[in-house]
Amino acid sequence: MAADSAFRMLPVTLSVSKDISNYMRFAEMLCDRLAHALLTSASLAERFRAEIENWKLTRVSVGALTVDRQSRRYFLSSGSALLRHALLEAWTHFIRPAYGGAIFFLDDLQNLATPTVQDTSLIVRDQFQSLGVEGVNLSVCFSARSDYFSGLRSFAEPAVRFYNKLTLQPFSLRETTEYVCSVFGTTSLDLQRLAEWFHGKTLGHPYFLAFVSRELWRLYRAQQFTDATHLWPVIFHRLEEGKFNADLERLSEKEVALLRAAALTDQSEFKPASSASSKQAC
Known about the structure:
Mean pLDDT: 76
CATH architecture of the largest domain: 3-Layer(aba) Sandwich
CATH class of the largest domain: Alpha Beta
Number of domains: 2
Strand order of the largest sheet: 1-4-5
Radius of gyration: 22 Å
Number of strands: 5
Helix content: 55-70%
Number of helices: 12
Order of helices and strands: HEHHEEHEHEHHHHHHH
Shape: globular
Strand content: 5-15%
CATH topology of the largest domain: Rossmann fold
Structural class: mainly alpha
Low-confidence stretches: 57-77, 272-282
């Protein structure tokens, strides 16, 4: 068990939306996602769960600094202090006893600009690098637009050198098959058929591959099946609730109207101007 835990990593995910207005709010949400990951972890003993619930405090004291999570005004350093304090506590009491470390997956990090996008990447880098120096095995992986680092003057900048950059592209059918085999390889499912179904539904998009596979695995554990086709309405409903509705809530009325116009057109490509003119013609 001890040997296994040395290689087991705890995944923590956070979608960084535009309504995360500052680093304090980012730190709070990351702490909440960490607590959620710990509470749903099968590797932690039941006795830890009450402690984790208590760990989700609304007020945190860091030395002489007291951070009230309900307050409306924060300083950036307070967010850094809160996150450092919480991560060290979680590492000592919950992560290290059951895991070799944790990986934080941050989606759309470009939405957090405190005060600039480039400053955010440097702050996150400083935060996790300092923990690594102390032997705390916490890693960070984030997605962002392809031009995320374009505002930096030199690729020798610390924020750039700290990260290994990969360009995400749709999975091919072969890559989708490899992915499906790694997730469902222990099941009795027809993996090639399942991979083709996955690829047809997601077109190889990494986010949707991960989402659909997670939901399908959850359903399989609840009740085993041999054909995933009939489960698509259930999975799509979950996708609608967890992804599409949340994204739509962040759009303006004009953006929603544009999407509706796009959905009604037979064109595979269109421009906002042409969409507006066709709408007026109707």
